Amino acid sequence: MTRAASATEAPPLDVKRIAAITLDLDDTLWPIWPTIERAEQALHEWLERRAPATAQLLADPQVHRELRQATAKELSDLAHDLSALRRESIRAALRRAGEDPALADPAFDIFFAERQRVELYDDVLPALRWLSERYPLVAVSNGNADLQRTGIARWFRTGFSARSFGSGKPHAPIFRAAAASVGLLPRDVLHVGDDAELDVAGALNAGMQAAWVVRDARPWAEGARPQLVVPNLHALCMALDL
Question: Radius of gyration over alpha carbons of the chain, in Å?
Fold first, then answer.
């Protein structure tokens, strides 16, 4: 892994201090873009039947992008709520196409149901079993995956999403709340995630230790470095198995 010139060393991982683990979801436990693509295809097929003009409008990637960006700008107070932004961008498309904006709610339900059909990385289920036998696990995500509907709730004590919490990573409050939910201070928690800024920098700034999951080749481009870098969750378990 290439080191950025401004990077600073973190202290080594203090395994004995770790009393709980917080875990990111999208791109840490499953690849997110294949999931989103399937959900968007299911939405498109539903719109073709119920709102064909809207389906045709959204089939243009540029129009789709413009509507998403305009909705995000107009509803900037909902930046932490990906579900609301997705629903309202569908509503905006329906209005532009001259179709019933009330269809946005059932249309979003189609998207959201498919968004929960995730395909876990091969290492994830064995790792969740191993980790949950040793630590309380708490999910911390900016996305809108549902622990129950994705089938992984059994391994987690609880979960925090930016939508339900009101703000997300990399801001410190969501990390601190996750630690407090299992009766701990951030310093006694290891956060595990794939995003250098949102997961690693956010967790370190909140006072946690951090493990960076790098399933592909990416250089480190932030400041303070994580205590641990692993290619998958199997390697994480091996690093914690002292």
Answer: 19
Task: Check if the beta carbon of residue 93 is closer than 8 Å to that of residue 54.
Answer: yes
Tell me whether residue 2 is in a domain: no
User: Do 137 and 71 belong to one domain?
Assistant: no
pLDDT in tens, 158-204: 999 999 999 999 999 999 999 999 999 999 999 999 999 999 999 99
Residue 9 domain-assigned (yes or no)? no
Q: What pTM was estimated for this model as a whole?
A: 0.90
The parent domain of residue 179 ranges over: 15-30+120-240
Structure tokens at 110: 């189609």
Last-in-domain residue among 71, 90, 115: 115
User: What is the domain count for the chain?
Assistant: 2
Query: Pairing mode, if any, of strands 158-161 and 189-193?
Result: unpaired
Using the Cα atoms of residue 23, residue 26, residue 27 and residue 31 in order, give the sign of their dihedral: positive
What distance in Å separates the CA atoms of residue 178 and residue 169, rounded to the nearest whole number? 12
Residues 110 and 159 in one domain: no
